[in-house]
Amino acid sequence: MHKKLVGLLVALAAVTGLLLIGGGHASAADVQDTPTRVWVGFTPAETKQIAASGVESIFDTPQLRPYWYANPDRDSRYKTFYVPGKGYVVYTSAQAMVKEAASHPNGRVWVSYNKTLPKPLTLWTEF
Q1: Number of H helices, E strands in the chain
Q2: Are 85 and 97 in contact (CB under 8 A)?
Q3: Which residues, other chains included, contact 122 with Cβ-Cβ below 8 Å and sequence gap of 6+?
Q4: Contact, 127 vs 107, CB < 8 A?
Q5: How confident is the model at residue 26, as a pLDDT?
Q6: From which residue to which does the signal peptide run (predicted)?
Q7: pLDDT digits over 87-126, tens only?
Q8: Which of 6, 15, 33, 117 has the fewest Cβ atoms within 10 angstroms?
Q9: Is 94 exposed, middle or buried (0-12, 13-18, 19+ CB in 10 A)?
Q10: Measured distance CA(73)–CA(23) in Å, rounded
Q11: Closest listed residue to residue 63, CA positions, set 9, 11, 124, 5
């Protein structure tokens, strides 16, 4: 399953790159690799392109939903809270989080893959 998740993360970055090239932008996602984690960071312009394309909804599919965490910006309307037996949760969709980030002038998203976590994907937002 981990290979599939890494593949999806790479595919998200690739699709975003194609969208940006098609949109006339010359930028590409910022990828950082550490021994345990791979980060893919998107600029505010890229975040707006992702939100407009709907590509982030792949995280909301039944096949991926059990494998990702959400870490919204501290000012997000989507708050994290603790549920016994589940840990910290956010009741929202990836699509809603990305659209919220895209609605802010400096809003951006990151996706990380951490092979040490039971849910290796995390969607981060910042505005």
Answers
A1: 3, 7
A2: no
A3: 68, 69, 70, 71, 111, 112, 114
A4: yes
A5: 46
A6: 1-28
A7: 888 999 999 999 999 999 999 999 999 989 888 999 999 9
A8: 33
A9: buried
A10: 27
A11: 5
Q: Is 24 left (phi over 0), alpha (psi -120 to 50) or beta?
A: left
Contact 62, 80 (CB under 8 A): no
Q: What are the structural domain ranges in the chain?
A: 2-126
Q: Which helix (H) or strand (E) holds 83?
A: strand 81-83
Neighbours of 20 (CB within 10 A): 20
pTM: 0.77
C-alpha 22/C-alpha 16 separation (Å) is 10
Instruction: Say how many C-beta atoms besides its own lie within 10 A of residue 38's C-beta.
Output: 18
Q: Could you give the residue ranges of the DSSP H alpha helices within 23-56?
A: 44-53
User: Two tokens at 5?
Assistant: 């998740």
